[in-house]
């Protein structure tokens, strides 16, 4: 049984290889040679790395692995992430029963039936954005700025009761918070500004209630303004960054795989399955999910001791050949539903029904309305977000 004495294989995150859609080769190599291995983190500390589908699922489903970032040994991915979780952890970094108590206050807002009722409004938002993007005979635009980012931002603002006119402010805060190179001070300052803003907004809902989530949490009377503000921050950031990046990166992946794009154009009804395959293939939460062992646990050939961290690489798990044969291929006809792009276990993404619906509407509407869609710059010039905690592209210049 191997233990922490093993030599670290590399420093996390390792460099990407030639294919910008694929996880860095070092993780695929680890998956084949030593599926549970040792890595070094940014601050020189050591952590375990889980790379196989089976092992990642096992860790994320096992309550002996804690998501509580205040526990010693928790593997922070950057200095900024440590700062994000320093003062006011939200329920994503808590264990049950506290995690479940807080999450339960929101589950009703994100169940499939409730989300499906938003379909006409999301469709209208997508159409309005495309109307504007193509107005006055325009034949090109940056998809990120004009469509992929505003769509989920408008939707999450609507749900929370946050004024969309403040989007540049909260998008900038979240950019700083999610940039790998941001210092702890920069992340702390951006987070403080965002939390102050949400606290003030929450306070205002006490006298001017609306039908948004923040107002509903105020009316419930169980949480302080600061607790509601922290929840609002989690939803606002998670609710727009992820879907925005998935949308733009999906469009790029389809343009690079013309046979798959053609398949989706000819079978628009296949968009539901196509979104699952794109989630698997692209896995934008590319830095992995951190957990820390609360007692000794055997994982594969390895004994993880209490207090040792594990980084679960959902990106390599989603290309595990045992689970997804030819996993490096984008195949929209594949049944990809076992992917772990939304995580697994009690922390599995709360917003996934909303993310799925937004992605289905965004892709279907784009392909239907812009049949000539193509990249407006050489592929080599596209700037990928290797510098961010959520992967994607910084901008996507398209022509039609
Ligand atoms: C394509 C889009 C999205 C992806 C790939 C994604 C991915 C993830 C992943 C991997 C986790 C698990 C984190 C962990 O276990 O440590 C997670 C959790 C979470 N996500 Fe998402 N997400 C997306 C969209 C959204 C949206 C639209 C919302 C909100 C409206 C949202 C809200 C949350 C929340 C609140 C959690 C924490 C759940 C908990 O701890 O119980 N996400 N997401």
TrEMBL record:
Region Disordered, annotated ranges: 1-24
Pfam families named among the record's database cross-references: p450
Cleaved signal peptide residues: none
Xref: SUPFAM superfamilies: Cytochrome P450 (SSF48264)
Keywords of the record, alphabetical order, are: Heme, Iron, Metal-binding, Monooxygenase, Oxidoreductase
Xref: PROSITE patterns: CYTOCHROME_P450
Q: Does the keyword Protein biosynthesis apply?
A: no
Q: Which GO terms describe its molecular function?
A: heme binding; iron ion binding; monooxygenase activity; oxidoreductase activity, acting on paired donors, with incorporation or reduction of molecular oxygen
Q: Which family, according to UniProt? A: Belongs to the cytochrome P450 family.
Know the name of this protein? Cytochrome
Q: Which organism encodes this protein? A: Kitasatospora aureofaciens
């Amino acid at each position: 049984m191997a233990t922490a004495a093993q030599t670290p294989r590399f420093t996390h995150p390792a460099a990407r290889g030639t294919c910008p859609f694929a996880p860095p080769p070092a993780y695929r190599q680890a998956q084949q040679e030593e599926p549970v291995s040792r890595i070094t983190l940014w601050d020189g500390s050591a952590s375990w790395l889980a790379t196989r589908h089976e092992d990642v699922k096992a860790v994320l489903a096992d309550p002996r692995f804690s998501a509580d970032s205040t526990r010693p040994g928790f593997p922070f991915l950057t200095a900024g992430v440590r700062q994000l979780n320093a003062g006011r952890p939200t329920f994503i970094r808590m264990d049950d029963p506290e995690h479940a108590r807080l999450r339960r206050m929101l589950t009703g807002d994100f169940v499939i039936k409730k989300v499906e009722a938003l379909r006409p409004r999301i469709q209208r938002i997508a159409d309005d954005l495309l109307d504007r993007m193509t107005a006055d005979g325009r034949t090109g635009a940056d998809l990120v700025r004009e469509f992929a980012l505003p769509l989920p931002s408008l939707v999450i603002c609507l749900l929370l009761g946050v004024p969309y006119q403040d989007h540049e402010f909260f998008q900038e805060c979240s950019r700083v918070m999610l940039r790998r190179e941001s210092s702890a001070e920069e992340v702390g300052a951006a987070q403080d500004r965002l939390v102050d803003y949400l606290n003030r907004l929450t306070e205002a809902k006490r006298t001017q209630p609306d039908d948004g989530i923040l107002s509903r949490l105020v009316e419930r009377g169980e949480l302080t303004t600061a607790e509601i503000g922290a929840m609002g921050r989690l939803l606002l950031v998670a609710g727009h960054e992820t879907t925005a990046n998935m949308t733009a990166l999906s469009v790029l992946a389809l343009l690079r795989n013309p046979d798959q794009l053609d398949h989706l154009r000819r079978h628009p009804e296949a968009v539901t399955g196509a979104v699952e395959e794109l989630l698997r293939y692209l896995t934008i939460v590319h830095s992995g999910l951190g957990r820390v062992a609360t007692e000794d646990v055997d994982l594969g050939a390895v004994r993880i001791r209490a207090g040792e961290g594990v980084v679960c690489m959902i990106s390599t798990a989603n290309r595990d050949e045992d689970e997804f044969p030819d996993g490096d291929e984008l195949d929209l006809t594949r049944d990809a539903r076992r992917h772990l792009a939304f995580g697994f276990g009690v922390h599995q993404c709360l917003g996934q029904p909303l993310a799925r619906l937004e992605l289905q509407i965004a892709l279907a509407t784009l392909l239907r309305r812009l049949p000539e869609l193509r990249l407006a710059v050489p592929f080599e010039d596209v700037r990928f977000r290797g510098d961010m905690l959520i992967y994607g592209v910084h901008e996507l210049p398209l022509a039609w």
